[in-house]
Amino acid sequence: MVRRFYYITFLMAAVTMAGCGGNQPKTVGPPAKPKVPELMKPFRYHKMIEVSPGQNYDVFSWGRGSQEAGAFMILHSDSAAIKYTTTTGDLEGQIIDVYNSDMDVDGNPEILIAAKSKDTINRTSIYAFEFSNDNGKANKLDFPKLNNSQRKGYRGDDNFYIRDGKLIREFPIYKGSGKDAASTGAKRQLEYGLSRNEFTVKQLSKDSVDVAPKAGTANAAPNKQDDKPTTKKSEKKSSSKSNKKKKHKRHRE
After folding, report:
1. To 5 degrees, how large is the angle CA 181–CA 182–CA 183?
2. Quick check: bond before 42 cis, omega within 30?
3. pTM of the predicted model over 0.90
4. Using CA atoms, how far apart are residues 20 and 250, in angstroms rounded to an integer?
5. What is the DSSP track for 121-175?
6. Which residues of the chain, if any, have pLDDT below 70?
7. Beta carbons of 125 and 93 less than 8 angstroms apart
């Protein structure tokens, strides 16, 4: 009887503990991030841009072997008109981003591909196309190179983004060349627009590639030579003339 009593008591305690544990709230961890689908080789990059309902642009990069050479491909899907076009070209470097804008506000979208090359400087190239809404054809746009003043102090590390329908380009300014090049702390900012299928460039920033003067040089003490009193030439001439007159008077006497 005693053993049966202890056995029943043990079972009741076990059931009670199990019931208490079931009422405790379960801790829920953060939701798992959806995995980015991996591209099947030879594709390396993909981004889809929806310009308007039914107007989609899928941008791919692809190639085998060297990662610094390949090709790009723009697939334009016009599902409303049931038209599908392909635009391809050679690619230097790797695509880092793709931008969409209508810089000339003509209703025809521009697709801008930014690709970074690993050369002596981290230079970024832009591959630009304007797509016609009438026939879906792509018009290649020549992106302008930096002129002498814009290129002064340039060592790559470009940052591109769209602002107010314009393409903005920013990059740090360096002084010197090669391994001795040092950042001045200033940045150059350029704004790209489009007029008659040609790019326009306007510099927005006021920068300098010169190293700022050290503190205290502007208030440096003047040279000791500046402290000496100076005698004017007119004063010297007048004093010499007065001495000559005195000599002549003494001679007459």
Report:
1. 130
2. yes
3. no
4. 134
5. SEEEEEEEEEE-TTT--EEEE-PPPP-HHHHTTB-B--EEEEETTEEEEEEEEEE
6. 1-29, 34-36, 208-253
7. yes
